[in-house]
Amino acid sequence: MSNTEDDQPDFARYEGEFGAGEVPVEYEIEDTIEEHASTAERIVSTLKRDKLAFLGALVVVAFVLTAIFAPYVAPHGPEQQFGFMQEPLSESTGDFNGDGQQETVTHYLGTDSFGYDILTRIIYGAQISLLVAFATVAFAFTIGTALGTTAGFYGGKLDSIIMRGIDFIWAFPTIILGVGVIAVLGGLGWLNVVIAIGIAFIDDFARIVRGEVLSIREEEYITAAEAVGMSDSRIMLREILPNAVSPIIVQATLMIPLAILGEAALSFLGLGVKPTTPTWGLLISDGRQFISQAWWISVMPGLAIMTVVLAFNTLGDGLRDALDISEQEVN
Amino acid sequence: MWRYVAKRTAHAFFVMWLVATTVFVGLRSVPGGPVRAMLGQEATPEAVASLRAELGLNDPLYVQYVDWFASMLTGDFGRSITSSESVGQLIASAAPRTISIAALAVTLGLAIAIPAGIIGATRRNQSADYVATLGAFVGISLPAFFVGILLAIVFGVWLGWFPVVGYTPLSEGVIPWLRGIILPSIAVGLPYAAGVTRMMRSSLIETLNEQYMRTAVAKGVTSRTRLYKHALQNALIPVVTIAGIQLALILGGSVTVEIVFGIQGLGRVLVNSILERNYPVTQMTILLVAGIFVFMNLLVDIMYTAIDPRIRYGGEEA
Prior knowledge:
The structure holds two protein chains of two kinds. Chain A is 64% helix and 3% strand. Chain A has helices at 11-14, 25-30, 39-49, 51-68, 70-73, 118-154, 156-170, 174-185, 190-216, 220-227, 232-240, 245-268, 280-288, 296-322; strands at 90-94, 103-107. The radius of gyration of chain A is 24 Å and the shape is elongated. By secondary structure, chain B is mostly helical. Chain B has helices at residues 2-28, 33-39, 45-55, 61-73, 87-122, 127-140, 144-158, 174-208, 211-219, 223-245, 247-260, 266-275, 279-307, 309-312. In chain B, helix 8 (174-208) runs antiparallel to helix 11 (247-260). The radius of gyration of chain B is 24 Å and the shape is globular. The two termini of chain B are 17 Å apart.
């Protein structure tokens, strides 16, 4: 979405004494022009420096790839059944690929009460998690940024009306708002889940963007843009937003784990995507009644949620430090 | 100060009125209306007509709105559709459970978070800080219902210390009541504690770096007084905000955790009412939960004036 090239023009570097290359270290200290790395450069250098954020990024990439290539990664089919409630690392022997020969397969995370391989179900569950999480953040991002930019740019009456609405969304706890939206929309279906969770996140984006816009509005280049007769929408989209992109990126990264948790909670409650689709929340909920016989049915998908959410949080924290955004601004 | 409190209270009531109106309009904009939703798509036209009449849905919208509001103000919250209980009774039996869990969760959460945050900030980059920071980081990544399931497995099933299912009212004794809600409260309170710990730590670190802290050292104030009198009072201000906003986490967490522990609290009532399309119950539970949240935050705002004199003397936020 963001084009990093026109993000922050890097004059200092391109017009340096040594041409479009590196400035030797000894000169850099005396350089009075403040040098700004581009957003992308700062992210890359953070990932190189911050081991935890790098680890988080690795897990995030692994999670995304697993979700996309679920059918190739998963050891079995999502509907393939084995013995009921087999322990983790237990084995099943039988003809599973239909070649007429007996083979032994290991259930690394055990099987559930229907005899499904839990690792397989978790891998397929990652698809819904990923889809809902990204779609939710995209939804909240689009609406929240639009509202926040409009409110911050025009100010006055429009600003107070929009911010009242935002306060109102804030008055609901995420899950309660989500559950309420599901009650109205009828639930069941990933788009409804996206709207239900996404609405609760609009206020976070709107607030941050509005704050950024309010400060950027006072910059001279905005006055200049107005003076040359740029249209309002062009100023907002081409002049203001690219300069407000850092906190938005951090906020989005920190919202994804919240969306994953929200989706998991809704499907745990039975109000998420179709009850037959294996989502992580639903897997935990299925295992709940068997905790005395087979603890692993609930615990394994729970650990999956924890790992992915933890990874996104470490990455988000790393980005926040990299882009130098205070914790008060984004959290 | 009283002007500020009055203004805040008025605002809270305004938000509640907005919430109520939205719930009213929202549930009436369900495709096919609430009656279709309640009876299902296959209902006969006669059944639909009679239920519409019974619920007063044939009146003009503004009449329904005024009626609904008037009956709510007189304490008549309507009847549950699936059982003979009134919504008022249903909520009266569910609310104490949720409130018990939430109250214990907040208490436990703050009892963990504030010391942990102080330790993290005062022993910065020592092993105690790493434990607190890492713990808080894992804590914000855990859904409450998963913590609940882990606790139920370890302390309920394996160790057998606490019941895995059910709730005992406070009237039957404090100990049985506590035994019933301790695991759910920890499950709800841990993610809450994690969020507050992070805020406490970063806010206290910021305060400890202030100029006036150096002045206090120069004056020869003891480190204990410096921490508790000078730093903490100032560091607590943003913590109180977060502690209030994060109450959403407590209420939301309680909804899922009640299902883990089979406690018939507001969360369970709400979810069941949605699954059964029991609209009168749904709208009142949503309203009540939102109300608890709004008024807890009002309380937090008022507490503010006690901690931060700047608000008392008219310096209001923009």
